[in-house]
Fold this sequence. Notes:
Layout: H1 2-8, H2 13-30, H3 34-41, H4 45-54, H5 63-81, H6 83-91, H7 94-104, H8 111-132, H9 144-157, H10 160-166, H11 175-189, H12 195-202, H13 206-209, H14 214-219, H15 235-244, H16 249-263, H17 267-273, H18 285-291, H19 298-318, E1 326-327, E2 333-334, H20 336-348, H21 355-369, H22 373-381, H23 384-394, H24 399-404, H25 411-427, H26 431-438, H27 444-452, H28 457-471, H29 474-478, H30 480-483, H31 486-496, H32 500-513, H33 520-526, H34 529-537, H35 542-555, H36 561-571, H37 573-580, H38 585-598, H39 602-612, H40 614-625, H41 630-646, H42 657-665, H43 672-685, H44 690-695, H45 698-716, H46 720-737
Antiparallel strand pairs: 1-2
Helix pairs in contact: 1-2, 1-4, 2-5, 4-5, 4-7, 5-6, 5-8, 6-8, 6-9, 7-8, 8-9, 8-11, 11-16, 15-16, 16-19, 17-19, 18-19, 19-20, 19-21, 20-21, 21-25, 23-25, 25-28, 27-28, 28-32, 31-32, 32-35, 34-35, 35-38, 38-41, 40-41, 40-42, 41-43, 43-46, 45-46
Amino acid sequence: MALLASRAFDGDYETASQTLATLKSLKNTVVGDPRRKKDIACSDTIPGLVEFILNTEVDPDALLQDIRLEVSSVVSCLANANPLTALELVRASAIPALVQALNDLPANDTDKLTIGFCRALRSIISSCSVILAPRAGLQDDFSNVDREEARQAIEDVLQAEALDVYLPLLSQPGLAATTIAELLHSSLSCWDTPSPRNAITEWLPPNERESKSPATILRNRGWETAGRAEPAGSWVSDRLLKLLSTGDMKAQEAALGALGALAHDNATLANALTRPGSDKGAIAPLSEIFAYTTSRYPSIRLAACNSACYILRAVKLTKPKLYVELQRPNGSVYDPVLTLVMLLITVIGDDGVGAQYQAQGCHILAVLVADDERNQDMASQCGLLSVLLNYLQANNPSAAEREWAEDMPGTQSRFREAILIALASLTLHQDSLRRKLLSMTPSYLDLIMAALDDSCVGVRYAACQCARALSRSVDVLRTSAIDSGLGMKLWQMLKTEKDRRVQVVLLMCMSNLVLDFCPLREILLEKGVIQRMVELIDNGDEGVTRNAVWAIRNTLYHCTLSDQMLVLNQLGMERLHGILAHPDNGVKQQAIILVRNTTTSADSCQFVVQGLGRERVFRVLKDGIDDNDNETVLQSVSLLLNLAQELECSGEFPEQKEVLVSMKNRLSCRYPRTQKVIFETIIALSVSCWDLLHELGFSAALKETLHEMEMNVSLGGEAQEENALRDLAKIALVSVTSR
């Protein structure tokens, strides 16, 4: 294929014609044939395809451009075949090639090549987004290497240089703008940091940047405006809103998806979308989006609901207590959250739209109510719990059906999974809703137990999420988890489950079942729960390791010395040291808390210090206190406080100047919880380490910290907590200045 590419662009008409025919044949072969697509992905065909894309020769004869267009179609087919096939295209540098090809197209180029390259780029990124973070429901699992490659591919298209190439296409009428909107939806919906969303929100075409820069605006005279203000808060969102008005279904769905993905955790844009424009009678862009929630097409209706959901959630990031109200064109006011809940309940209860769209409605509802008590109460008052429970019962297969079920999840399994995810989201943080659900008919616990046996991994995962939500209730842990057999069922699953994502949620359940007030705790310890967690720590997956350490840490909370020694012996001191030095900050943080939960007496402190070794303990402390993560710093200082209180006369600390210097450097941190523990640690250490604290300059450092605290009070009043913290700082200062 690479040789054909070279000859075709050397002006050999016959070879070019042959190449075009070969490409057409290749496309016809791979369409609808996943096995053939996989074979091509494993061959040397893909590098040759990329070489075709990169060739920017312009020939009067359209033949060579037809070749490149055919190549873009083949690339799209391959990328849509399978996410792993898309990764082969990524490894062959297809993404930078496509971006470069778009950039090099002449201004007078027809839409065909532009659309072809955009579709190819969109197809690759869409498949990569499935690898990184599927939008709804559990998909195939992928390795850490595959996920990292997919992340890098998506990051590449979110770079400023790439944005400058394809974002201007949003202003072009036709399929190019629709395809770019789909590209934005795919890339942003799976991204977990705000930087790309902020960059796209602030993006302007190169020819408008100078005119809208602050310096240019200052140079303008009063009657010379710097350009029309964007009504939706940004150039990109304005173009997406204009795409909505085209009347084209695909364009509308793409624009709504992109707006929701762009507004996700983007308070700046979300607030702008809830404000009406300056024109008389103008309505907020969010009201325009709500107009599409009543579309007769389910895909448009749900795309609008999804977009509105993310906008409403983002508004509350900066204004948690703000309740948005929107105005209809006739002037009436409505609550958008209540309206959205009712719309989604209608979709979920409408068998006519099909299980696929009903499942999508459940996933949107799960996002809308997550961690939001008001939205949860509103959904419950609208009868959502009853609707979901009845549909879960209706979609509950019999034992025979489960036995003969195929491994590949069907539409009904996806719907069942989505119902369970919505129920878990509703009940995760509200005990009142958990109690209400458990009192309803049909039996919620029976339905969860049945779902835990499902052959579909997505259903098992979602059922475990429901069990996790229930296990957060003390009453459930003491009664229902035992009486129903749910606790032991989860333990049996933990012993046999192979899917790492289900393992993570099972470990979250275990973290609650091993707490000191749960009657199942002793039974689980006897049956070897710690040994199973140790096995999972060793499996190498960071998410599984982090949650296994978390579960062991909870086991050690309020634990007797004999149980502490038993658990730590099963864990092993070398393994404990390994997770304390783990490259993943989440694992390391949980390991520090594990040791903190253990060091609650002089005997347990001696056991840990002797088992790990003095140098290792204090290296962990120093690294933790120097960490950039605030929670890691807090837990490390708290561990130091435990050791200071229990080993104050042991002579351990005078030799550890580096740890104390690191703690002294944290005195000026702006986190009251951390400052409080530091002051308490200084007071505890002053008994046996007074000379060392004095030598290291703690007296001067505390005086400076107190001065800063006094200055802050004089500038902005004082709260009761600040008073108490300042008093504690004074006690710490006295403890290091006088014996």
